[in-house]
């Protein structure tokens, strides 16, 4: 609105130093209004998805994090999968350090 008024003032007084910069302001204002019209209900869609999808964040001690978006009805299955993967990774680390010794590995 402000850019439109200054553009009109510059055109009315035939002052190009006022009118020309406000042409860009008017164009950017139109773009802003178009984007607002397109995305004004974006928050409602996001709130509707919150009831359908949950996220599980697995934080690694090294600082890396994994995010797993899941459907609410599949929550138990993914939690079990993540727990199994974490236990497998932990076992691999322990095996690499030599903490786990299988019965078949020890000489008798």
Automatic annotation (TrEMBL):
InterPro entries: SWEET (IPR047664), SWEET_rpt (IPR004316)
Annotated stretches, region: Disordered: 87-108
Keyword annotations: Cell membrane, Membrane, Repeat, Sugar transport, Transmembrane, Transmembrane helix, Transport
Keyword Cell cycle: no
The UniProt record lists the keyword Lipid metabolism: no
Family that this chain belongs to: Belongs to the SWEET sugar transporter family.
The protein's name in its UniProt record: Uncharacterized protein
